[in-house]
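Lab manual, section 2.4: Encoding a predicted structure.

Procedure: take the sequence of the chain (118 residues), apply the prediction step described in section 2.3, and record the output as structure tokens. A sample record is shown.
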Amino acid sequence: MSRGVNRASKIRSIDTRPGVVDERSRIGDWEDDTVIGKEKKQRILTKIERKSGFGIADKLEKVTAEIVHSKSVEQFKKIPRKARITLTRDNDSEFGDYDMKLEKEMKMSVYKAHPYHS
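Recorded output:
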């Protein structure tokens, strides 16, 4: 297995993400997360483009990795290909093991943050 690849999900570690992502100098580098409601029953799936701050949010009635993946594909299909280069996400269970599938479907690189780090 190559260095910088998360063995559990076979996805790239944030350590291997290109430096340009940290610079916030180009459009197309995204972060996603979920916001948990007060009752802890509903969540909002968010995608934020790092340079512009442009955001997309969708309410999730039910939260499973499959639903989050489907919603992510739906969200990114609305974004022009040239404006979706990378996605950085944390290790929350709602993202499941769909990172490689998302990479393939959306033709963008997906990176994982270190566990227990935002």
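Check your result against the sample. The chain has one domain: 5-112.
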